[in-house]
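Severity: low
Component: inverse-folding endpoint
Summary: output formatting inconsistent between runs
Steps to reproduce: submit the following structure tokens with default settings.
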């Protein structure tokens, strides 16, 4: 059982807390997460429902492009990542995330 939870937690890297994502959370009940790039929407939905005991109604995903970085004449790239915006069914909230934010 602990191996399954470890795999689920490894799939979701971390919740995204920016000004835009916090507005989505308070107004629309949508939560943003950074996830592994290889996960599909169905897999993300199953993981969120198992970890937080909620029902997901909608998932939007986006793979953000590489960004160029330069430090002291050395150019490189920030890595790509996948962002998932999750809308829960009415009556469900992620209390654990909200208490850590507020």
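Observed output (run 2 of 3):
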């Amino acid at each position: 059982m602990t191996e399954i939870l470890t795999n689920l937690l490894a799939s979701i890297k971390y919740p995204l807390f920016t000004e835009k994502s916090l507005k989505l959370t308070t107004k629309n009940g949508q939560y943003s997460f950074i996830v592994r790039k290889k996960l599909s929407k169905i897999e993300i939905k199953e993981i969120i429902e198992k970890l937080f005991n909620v029902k997901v109604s909608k998932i939007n995903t986006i793979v953000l492009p590489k960004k160029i970085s330069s430090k002291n004449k050395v150019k490189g790239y920030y890595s790509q990542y996948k962002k998932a915006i999750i809308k829960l069914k009415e009556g469900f909230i992620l209390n654990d995330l909200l208490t850590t934010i507020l």
